């Protein structure tokens, strides 16, 4: 059972890292999604800053959850974020059906639809599993292990960033021809 | 029984799996059929507008004055594609067609190579990576046919002679209403040293 809980905790942490890293590769696109959920007219720099903030937040929580597993309050934070995903998916499905959600930046072309709400609910349920108590022995990390995990998480974020940038460049070119 | 520190093992395994999955997704998206189909511009799309001067001082414009213009995105490496050269020779005599070679950057070898393979009278233009990006071209040799209205009629990566001639046939087909893309998909400015 403990292994299942650890898998759930790690899987959601990895998901947050990938989502954060991928979104950071193209914050302008994610800002256009953020704008869908802000009813007021907001200046673009503020939207862009919000998009970067959300992306960095996901990345930071994912990194912390992975490298500081003994801090149980992080499990609650991760679960709250997962619940926010469900709420955003449901609102997107209700008001912006068919629009791109950019949940993973350019890595995925998912749109706001019923399947998206279901996916978010599954993620939230996995995050709920991670709330369960695990024996402290399993979460004991020495400095070396912590550094190793941080390096792995950073690598994951970097790969997600690069992959999203590569996919984004190929799929939606909006270049500007400059005068020579 | 859970071993001490088993979280590290689980976390590392999942991280490695996620990294491998991302590599897989990226590889498929950049090298698969999906990626090749994405290159170039769709028929009906308005192509970038530019004017460039070739080495002889001739100003070449796109859209062209002729009914059709074939922009070959290539360089001196064209000599490695003899079949494509054959295809170009087959169609270059047509008066309604203007063929130009657009290099990604200045390439002094391009013109001698074209002469060497018998493709004389073709303007060799020095483009730029941004111009290549505007046409969504990553891999060469790539062919794009433009009509005099500046719309893309056909575009594809070419490796064989028959692909060049087939593209010309496709370029002659009337555009379907659904393929008439609206203006402004690309932000355009004149890209050229010419007038």
Please explain how this structure is put together.
The complex is a heterodimer of chains A (180) and B (195). By secondary structure, chain A is mainly alpha-helical. Chain A has one domain (2-170). Chain A is 69% helix and 0% strand. Chain A contains six helices and no strands. Chain A has helices spanning 2-24, 27-36, 44-67, 73-95, 114-129, 143-171. Chain B has 195 residues and is of the alpha/beta class. Chain B has helices at 6-31, 33-38, 82-91, 110-116, 129-134, 161-172, and strands at residues 50-53, 59-62, 68-73, 97-103, 123-126, 142-147, 152-157. In chain B, the strands form two sheets. Chain B has a five-stranded mixed beta sheet with strand order 5-4-3-6-7, with helices on one face. In chain B, α3 (82-91) runs parallel beside α6. Chain A binds chain B through residues 2-3, 6-7, 9-11, 13-14, 18, 66, 69, 107, 134-135, 137-142, 145, 148-149, 152-153, 155-156, 159-160, 162-163, 166-167, 170-171, 173-180, and chain B through 2-8, 10-12, 14-16, 18-19, 22-23, 25-26, 29-30, 35, 38, 48, 50, 52, 128, 130-131, 133-134, 136, 138, 186-193.
| Biggest sheet character of chain B | 5 strands, mixed
Radius of gyration of chain A: 17 Å
Taking strands numbered 1, 2, ... along the chain, how are they ordered across the largest sheet of chain B? 5-4-3-6-7
CATH architecture label of the largest domain in chain B = 3-Layer(aba) Sandwich
Quaternary status: heterodimer
How much helix, percentage-wise, in residues of chain B?
Answer: 25-40%
% residues in beta strands of chain A: under 5%
Largest sheet of chain A: none
Number of helix segments of chain A? 6
- Global Rg of chain B: 21 Å
Which residues of chain B form runs of ≥5 with pLDDT under 50? 181-195
Number of strands of chain B: 7
CATH fourth-tier homologous superfamily of the largest domain in chain B: Glutaredoxin
- The total of helices of chain B stands at 6
């Amino acid at each position: 059972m403990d292994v299942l809980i650890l898998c759930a905790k790690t899987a959601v942490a990895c998901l947050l890292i990938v989502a954060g890293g991928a979104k950071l590769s193209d914050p302008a696109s994610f800002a256009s999604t953020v704008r869908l959920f802000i009813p007021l007219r907001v200046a673009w720099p503020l939207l862009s800053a919000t998009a970067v903030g959300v992306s960095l937040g996901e990345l930071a929580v994912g990194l912390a959850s992975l490298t500081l597993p003994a801090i149980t309050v992080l499990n609650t934070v991760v679960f709250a974020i997962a619940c926010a995903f469900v709420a955003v998916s449901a609102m997107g499905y209700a008001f912006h059906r068919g629009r791109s959600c950019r949940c993973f930046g350019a890595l995925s072309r998912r749109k706001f639809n019923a399947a998206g709400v279901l996916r978010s609910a599954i993620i939230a349920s996995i995050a709920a599993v991670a709330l369960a108590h695990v024996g402290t022995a399993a979460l004991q990390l020495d400095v070396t292990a912590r550094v190793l995990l941080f390096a792995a998480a950073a690598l994951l974020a970097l790969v997600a960033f690069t992959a999203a940038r590569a996919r984004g460049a190929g799929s939606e070119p909006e270049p500007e021809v400059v005068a020579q | 029984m859970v071993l001490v520190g088993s979280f590290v093992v689980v976390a590392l395994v999942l991280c490695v799996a996620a990294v491998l999955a991302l590599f897989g997704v990226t590889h498929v998206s950049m090298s698969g059929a999906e990626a090749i189909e994405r290159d170039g511009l769709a028929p009906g799309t308005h192509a970038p507008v530019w004017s460039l001067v070739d080495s002889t001082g001739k100003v070449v414009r796109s859209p062209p004055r002729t009914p059709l213009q074939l922009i070959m995105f290539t360089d001196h490496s064209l000599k490695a594609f003899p079949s494509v050269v054959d295809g170009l020779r087959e169609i270059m005599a047509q008066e309604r067609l203007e063929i130009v070679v657009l290099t990604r950057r200045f390439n002094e070898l391009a013109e001698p190579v074209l002469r060497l393979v018998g493709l004389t009278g073709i303007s060799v233009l020095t483009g730029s990576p941004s111009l290549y990006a505007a046409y969504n071209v990553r891999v060469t040799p790539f062919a794009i046919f433009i009509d005099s209205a500046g719309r893309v009629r056909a575009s594809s990566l070419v490796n064989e002679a028959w692909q060049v001639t087939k593209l010309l046939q496709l370029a002659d087909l009337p555009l379907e209403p659904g393929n008439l893309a609206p203006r402004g998909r690309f932000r355009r400015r004149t890209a050229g040293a010419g007038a």
